[in-house]
Every structure is written in structure tokens, then in C-alpha cells.
Write a structure and sequence with these properties.
2 helices; about 90 residues
Length: about 90
């Protein structure tokens, strides 16, 4: 996966790009297209995944099929983490 980190509008010191990228590469990561797409022309997606160190990351991104541009990322909330773990157990 190729990521575009130019002009990121959120603080990368709290959540390093390496952890975010690893959460996308997690074999159990979940990617969703929200019901409401807003009024922009680029579809926004959600990603739930874990870094190699076990950090649970929630991300909002778009992709052109070649590059991923993370619009926002943060640690998962407790309910997001529970949802992620339930889905992971269902697929096991």
C-alpha cells in the first residue's frame, strides 16, 4: 500500500504514520463505506485495524486505487474495539 502523507490535517505526533499504515495492512482490518457520503466527489471510507504493536486504530480515508490518503486517524473507542474484536472472531 502506498500512502500520501502530504498536508495531513491531524496531529501525527499522537499517532505515528507507521501505526496507521500497519492498521491498514492488518489482515483482520475492516474497511467500510459510510451510508452518508457527504457532498464531496471522493468517497470516504472507514478503517478499523491494529498495528503490529497492538495499537487499535480508527481511520477515515479515501483512495484512488493506487494511493491511500488518511484524512483522520485516532485510537479506537472501547465500542469500536469491541466491534472489531467481534467481527474478527466471526471470521476466525
Amino acid at each position: 500500500m502506498d500512502f500520501d502523507w502530504l498536508g495531513v490535517s491531524f496531529d501525527l505526533t499522537k499517532l505515528p504514520p507507521k501505526d496507521i499504515e500497519e492498521s491498514f495492512e492488518d489482515p483482520f482490518s475492516l474497511k467500510f463505506l459510510p451510508d452518508e457520503n457527504g457532498n464531496g466527489s471522493e468517497a470516504r471510507y472507514y478503517n478499523l485495524g491494529k498495528s503490529l504493536g497492538g495499537r487499535a486504530v480508527f481511520g477515515v480515508f479515501w483512495t484512488d486505487g493506487k494511493k491511500y490518503r488518511v484524512i483522520y486517524a485516532r485510537d479506537m473507542t472501547t465500542s469500536e474495539h469491541d466491534f472489531f474484536e467481534r467481527k474478527k472472531a466471526e471470521d476466525a
